[in-house]
Amino acid sequence: MPRVSQDQLDARRHEILAAARACFARYGYEGATVRRLEQATGLSRGAIFHHFRDKDSLFLAVAEDDAVEMAATVAANGLVQVMRDLLAHAQDPDAAGWLGTQLEVARRLRTDPAFAKRWAQHSEAIDTATRERLQRQAGAGVLRQDVPLDVLAHFLELAYDGLVKRLAMGGSADDFGPVLDLIEETVRRR
């Protein structure tokens, strides 16, 4: 029996995650049945669950990948850059999947205590990246000083959540560039 390289395993895992992201976004967690996941990935359930213990683990892996990427972007360029990236890719099917996944994470946080407990560390990583970025910006004299950093962080998080919701509901990305400029101007030092 031929051996499968780690690169091949990683590529297959990536393919499964991409197809599962689109399936979860389209049907929601409950509607993304194993049969639909098989159809989306083009793989058998055995092949899918060779890489992931169960559907919940698969969904969490999709959401975790998104959270890691988001935290890295926030740390390097800020939460407004994440929003700009969303706008730039709003018509991309993978971005639509990502948006749907974010909404599904929000729903499960509200309705599934076990998921919320598992998700807490990922949420904390994004929050920490946001606050550390704001602290660095404040130290560099770029941010306004009349508003506490926690308030600025909450403001940015609310703007992000609102943008995700609007885009996931099919809202046009064309009108939001000036809105993001305004958000950025609002947190900057005058």
Folded structure, characterized:
- The model has no long low-confidence stretch (mean pLDDT 88).
- This protein is an all-alpha fold.
- 79% of the residues lie in helices and 0% in strands.
- The chain starts with 5 loop residues before the first helix and ends with a helix.
- It is built from 9 helices and no strands.
Short account of what is shown:
This protein is an all-alpha fold and 190 residues long. The chain is built from nine helices and no strands. Helix 4 packs across helix 5 (79-88), helix 5 (79-88) packs parallel to helix 8 and helix 5 packs antiparallel against helix 9 (177-187).
N-C termini distance: 67 Å
Pattern of helices and strands: HHHHHHHHH
Give Rg in angstroms.
18 Å
The chain-level structural class is: mainly alpha
| Tally of helical segments | 9
- How many beta-strand segments? 0
Strand share of the residues?
under 5%
Q: What brief labels describe this structure?
A:
single chain; 190 residues; mainly alpha
Secondary-structure map:
Blueprint lengths: L5 H26 L2 H8 L3 H7 L3 H23 L1 H10 L4 H19 L1 H27 L9 H20 L8 H11 L3
Helix pairs in contact: 1-2, 1-4, 1-6, 4-5, 4-7, 5-8, 5-9, 6-7, 6-8, 7-8
